[in-house]
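Researcher: We plan to redesign the surface later, but first we want a full-length starting point. Tokens attached.
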């Protein structure tokens, strides 16, 4: 079913406790050393409150700017609802491109959430991590790619598949 196993790999960031707890189920593929320090800051509770302006930004026709700041926004509070159960992974490949998940994106994953049909999940399949949409059709459960060049992965008792968590946010550069 896998077109190219490399297209399904996700790099697990080296976080204290996260790797130790999950290494039993799938290997760590690579370490993203340049990101470890900022994620450790997130895990230690240090926050950075950045300006959040009250005016919206028009994606269609421009509107007059409102030059005052409404409040401060801490991205940790916005992106991480359950810090003890949250981890980050970096995506490689293009199997989820139609869901807005691109090669190089950083995913925020919450292990405390129950995987539900239609949600994007991180799963360990045959010892490798993959990001796919959790789906059901004709009584069968699948891990569905969001790219027509890839085939769905059927979840059945014979396969060694473990759902690691639910993707809650995608962070990517523009």
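Model: Full-length starting sequence:
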């Amino acid at each position: 079913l896998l077109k190219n196993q490399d297209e399904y790999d996700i790099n697990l960031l080296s976080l204290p406790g996260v790797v130790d707890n999950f290494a039993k189920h799938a290997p760590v593929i690579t370490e993203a050393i340049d990101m470890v320090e900022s994620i450790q800051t997130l895990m230690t509770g240090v926050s950075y409150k950045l300006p959040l302006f009250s005016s919206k930004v028009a994606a269609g026709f421009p509107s007059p700017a409102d030059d005052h700041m409404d409040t401060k926004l801490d991205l940790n509070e916005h992106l991480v609802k359950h810090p003890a159960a949250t981890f980050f992974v970096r995506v490689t490949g293009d199997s989820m491109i139609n869901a807005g998940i691109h090669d190089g994106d950083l995913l925020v994953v919450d292990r405390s959430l129950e995987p539900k049909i239609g949600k994007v999940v991180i799963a360990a399949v045959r010892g490798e991590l993959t990001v796919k949409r959790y789906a059901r059709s004709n009584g069968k459960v699948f891990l569905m790619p969001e790219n027509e060049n890839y085939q769905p992965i059927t979840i059945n008792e014979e396969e060694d598949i473990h759902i690691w968590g639910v993707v809650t946010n995608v962070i990517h550069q523009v």
